[in-house]
Amino acid sequence: MLDSTHEDSKYISAKGKDVIVIGGGDTGNDCIGTAVRHGAKSVVNFELLPQPPNERARDNPWPQWPKVYRIDYGHSEVKAQYGKDPREYCVMSKEFVSDGGGKVKGINTVRVEWARSSRGGWDMKQVEGSEQFFPADLVLLSMGFLGPEDRVLGDIERDARKNVKTPPGAYSTSMPGVFAAGDCRRGQSLIVW
Predict the structure, then answer these.
(1) pLDDT in tens, the chain (193 residues)
(2) If you classify domain 18-143 with CATH, what class do you get?
(3) Which of 154, 156, 165, 172 has the alpha carbon at shortest distance from 187?
């Protein structure tokens, strides 16, 4: 990309596109901020979990990582550009919708609610009648610090560590038109690459 000074158009661009980023971590935030800088038409960020509280909850004591509501640079940039925070909480992607020509045109979703289970954990339930279609020309998957899930990747080739396999110095996967970056390509780390 850098050698061509972007003149060959062989790069992913969010310019003029409805962008959806699935996942709310550091990589997702980077995707959100980059989409704004590319000149995306719109930017939405799906998060399966509920919006975190403003203060640390009783069941989240120190030295655990504080699960509190944060606004990172990507969220601020989207809000400044489009007038609202990009995050949609408690939303589950149900299916990608095709334009009929092999490209995505949107995602069908459903809202979910979380409730304490009798075992002490959390149970997720889909909210009946909350189905919604979100338009998307570009979808960026940024989920799963512990590695990519088999059901998401399907037949995409993996390396010996079960990460998405890409050629050295490149981001293309074994499936044409699908690219990998971040933890799913390099493996998890405590320092974001």
Answers:
(1) 556 666 777 778 899 999 999 988 888 999 999 999 999 999 999 999 999 999 999 988 999 889 999 999 999 999 999 999 999 999 999 999 999 999 999 999 999 999 988 887 889 999 999 999 999 999 998 876 556 677 778 899 998 888 899 999 899 999 998 998 877 888 776 655 5
(2) alpha beta
(3) 165
